[in-house]
Specification:
α4 runs antiparallel to α7. The protein has 9 helices and 10 strands. The longest helix is centred in the last third of the chain and has 68 residues. It folds into 2 domains: about 280 residues, Outer membrane efflux proteins (OEP) (Up-down Bundle); about 110 residues, no CATH class. It is an alpha+beta fold. The strands form 3 sheets. The chain has a 6-stranded antiparallel sheet with strand order 2-3-4-5-9-10, with no helix packed on it. The chain has a two-stranded parallel ribbon with strand order 1-8. A two-stranded antiparallel ribbon has the order 6-7.
């Protein structure tokens, strides 16, 4: 983190730093750049909110098992007569299997009090239990909500990893584009310098009568052509810098401006992604995408069990011990009690059967998603692994080609100095070398992008820890 702050301070102070030479410029490495993205980019912070939402939903689901205190009071006075004065308070403790424990105290009085509400002068105490013997015994709404919330919390963790993975992939592609455009810009700067030096030499040779005037014209045309290419390269580098700047943020959600004096470095970490891909081809059980889909299947499985439970009749039994003296409740031996039950069931169960069938369809679709996603990932990994190997081979070939074109150009320039060649042949050799160098830069960018794409598919970009 200390290194990140140094880089951020350097970028922010760039307008006040004089950089006359290239070695005095500030360089932004790939690894340091990714650390900045993981630490400060808003999309990464939004990904962390996914994890926080899962924790919040779990807390909400656990609230369904919170003990509850209830109280109620009613009073009626009419023409100096107290018709009734009703007060009751209840303490409820919901448990896992739908069983609910209750403790209650009520005190009622009044001239026109309903006889069933009459209680002792000190009030009536009750301790009881409510048991669902049909629907809701083995699984109920509270139980299902808590189980699904626990699974959802685990799902949000892998979803957060996938979200951060996408951000880091996009940021990596932007950096490789920036690095590539800088390479092209640097290439044209070097070759325009060579063209200017060559033009000065030919101009002197012309003044001494050793070269015709047409050679000076051709050498000057090459300078103009290189200037045109350089201007286009500067524009492309500027656009790539702007795109890269969208991923550079400081603390407190402050965007950073990437100055012209900041350049990329080629300190890319070499990774054996081909071997890693082979491991994932054998088993994708730990892949975040597969795990997320499997968590979805688990959630839908709980939902299906709840819907199946709805086919059972509602049969709730409630029993309460009654006492005017609460200490008697400790022994649970009391001849006074209150007992009751309620029963209900729809005749055709069409709503319940429809809900169950719909949940089965959702569950089957989710299971098929797991199978299809696993196959899709395997095929992507195989294709990217072969693509990565192909670009590695192409890099070797293009490096050899560039070396050969460089040798040819050096030989042609030597022949020109000896008077055995012409500026036309030198320019032809140089154009071939420039074209091969541009192709070399492009192939390397494809190699880096493929490596980043492989890491994206494998979901192995490091997750932010803040």
């Amino acid at each position: 983190m200390k290194g990140l702050k140094v880089i951020l301070i350097g970028i922010l102070l760039l307008p006040f730093i004089t950089m006359a030479q290239q070695q005095d410029s500030l360089y932004l490495g790939y690894e340091e750049y990714l650390e900045m993205v993981k630490a400060y980019h808003p999309l990464v912070k939004q990904a962390n909110l996914i994890r926080d939402k899962g924790a919040a939903d779990l807390l909400k689901a656990r609230g369904g098992f919170d003990p509850k205190i209830e109280a109620g009071y009613e009073r009626k006075d009419f023409k100096d007569t107290r018709y009734y004065d009703l007060f009751n308070s209840t303490f409820k403790i919901p448990t896992w299997y739908g069983v609910e424990l209750k403790a209650k105290w009520e005190k009622n009085e009044g001239y026109y009090l309903n006889p069933q509400n009459k209680v002792p002068n000190d009030g009536l105490f009750a301790a009881g239990i409510s048991i669902p013997l049909g629907q809701g015994l083995f699984i109920n709404d509270r139980m299902a909500a808590l189980k699904k919330a626990k699974v959802y919390r685990e799902q949000t963790l892998v979803d957060q990893q996938l979200a951060v993975n996408e951000v880091l992939y996009d940021a990596s592609v932007a950096y490789f584009e920036w690095y590539t455009k800088f390479g092209e810009l640097d290439l044209y700067r070097n070759f325009i310098e060579n063209a200017e030096i060559r033009y000065s030499g030919i101009l002197k040779s012309y003044e001494l009568g050793d070269k015709p005037a047409i050679d000076t014209l051709e050498a000057n045309i090459q300078i103009q052509d290189r200037n045109l290419s350089l201007t286009q390269a500067e524009l492309e580098f500027y656009k790539a810098s702007l795109k890269l700047g969208t991923y550079l943020w400081a603390e407190n959600n402050t965007p950073l401006e990437l100055k012209e004096e900041v350049y990329p470095t080629a300190n890319f970490q070499e990774e054996s992604l081909t071997a890693l891909a082979l491991l994932f081809e054998e088993s994708l059980e730990d892949h975040p995408k597969i795990r997320s889909l499997e968590y979805k299947v688990d959630i839908l499985e709980y939902d299906k069990r709840l819907k199946a439970n709805k086919l059972l009749p509602k049969f709730n039994l409630e029993y309460n011990f009654l006492s005017a003296e609460p200490e008697l409740l400790r022994s649970f031996i009391n001849e006074n009690y209150k007992l009751g039950f309620n029963f209900s069931i729809p005749i055709f169960l069409r709503k319940e059967r429809g809900d169950l069938q719909a949940s089965k369809i959702k569950l089957e679709n989710a299971e098929l998603d797991v199978v299809s996603q696993e196959l899709e990932l395997r095929n992507k990994i195989k294709a990217l692994r072969e693509q990565y190997k192909s670009y590695q081979e192409q890099v070797v070939m293009i490096n050899t080609l560039v070396d050969n074109y460089t040798t040819m150009l050096n030989a042609e320039e030597r022949k020109l100095q000896l008077g055995e060649s012409s500026i036309f042949f030198v320019n032809t050799r140089e154009k071939s070398l420039i074209a091969s160098r541009i192709k070399q830069i492009a192939i390397k960018q494809k190699l880096w992008n493929t490596r980043a794409e492989l890491k994206r598919v494998l979901a192995v970009f490091q997750v932010a820890t803040n």
